[in-house]
Amino acid sequence: MLSFIRILLALFYFVAVAVVGCFLSLFRPFDPDNTRIFARIYSWGGTRILGIKLNIKGVEGTVDMPPSVVIANHQDNLDLYICGGAIPKRTVSVGKKSLLYIPGFGLLYWLAGNVLIDRGNSKNSKAKLNVTTEALTKGNRSIWVFPEGTRNQGKNMLPFKKGAFRMAIEAGVPIVPICVSSYSGRLKFNKLVSGTVNIQVLDPINTNGMTVKDTDRLMDECWNKMKQTIDRLDEETPLV
């Protein structure tokens, strides 16, 4: 029963924040800090409704962070509530255009200044790269990417796709990995405390002097560092 009530409240909270956020965003449309503000609101309320204890370490290192490509492991639809508290300032995400059709949230996502792309059109891959690179170099924004490209359901981190790493190399900006302990399928919403999720923000990985030829090496370095950190976080995270 508690689990059912929590899910209903979380859905209501999702819609309520989207509606209020759309209204407030009209006064500062496309401001790149809108994403951080509303993501943290989602995280603040969502984790409390769902009974999730959230521990975030290393986020203080992003206070003076220059434009960067921020990468994180992608587990579940709850990532908005879980990862929202770790989003650095002036950071937007790259999302598919179909997000626009989610009632309320789609409009907020657009007004928050996030980058919308047509992932189904492979012919526009160069145009997609140009849009995100321009956001980094001219828009003074950081880009949040889930390099796995799809949810891993908390079972194991999937192989990375090259887009985020080519983006960072093209723009000459660092990569900031954010590691989230495995929570998908482990949270028990029928208990007062559903579970604990640990998040670790790693030190930036410099891309200065790299070329497209270094993409695979950079991608492997990031994957290995994140996998090692997530394994450690899982060992430190108590099971419910």
Automatic annotation (TrEMBL):
Membrane-spanning segments: 7-27, 98-117
Keyword vocabulary terms for this entry: Acyltransferase, Lipid biosynthesis, Lipid metabolism, Membrane, Phospholipid biosynthesis, Phospholipid metabolism, Transferase, Transmembrane, Transmembrane helix
Occurrences of domain Phospholipid/glycerol acyltransferase (ranges): 68-183
Catalytic activity: a 1-acyl-sn-glycero-3-phosphate + an acyl-CoA = a 1,2-diacyl-sn-glycero-3-phosphate + CoA
Top-level taxon of origin: Bacteria
Secretion signal, residue range per the UniProt entry: none
EC number from the UniProt entry: 2.3.1.51
Gene Ontology MF term list: 1-acylglycerol-3-phosphate O-acyltransferase activity
InterPro entries tied to this protein: AGP_acyltrans, Plipid/glycerol_acylTrfase
Pathway: Phospholipid metabolism; CDP-diacylglycerol biosynthesis; CDP-diacylglycerol from sn-glycerol 3-phosphate: step 2/3; Lipid metabolism
UniProt feature coiled coil, ranges: none
Domain notes: The HXXXXD motif is essential for acyltransferase activity and may constitute the binding site for the phosphate moiety of the glycerol-3-phosphate.
Family from the record: Belongs to the 1-acyl-sn-glycerol-3-phosphate acyltransferase family.
Annotated protein name in UniProt: 1-acyl-sn-glycerol-3-phosphate acyltransferase
Organism, as annotated: Alkalimarinus alittae
Source species taxonomy: Bacteria, Pseudomonadati, Pseudomonadota, Gammaproteobacteria, Alteromonadales
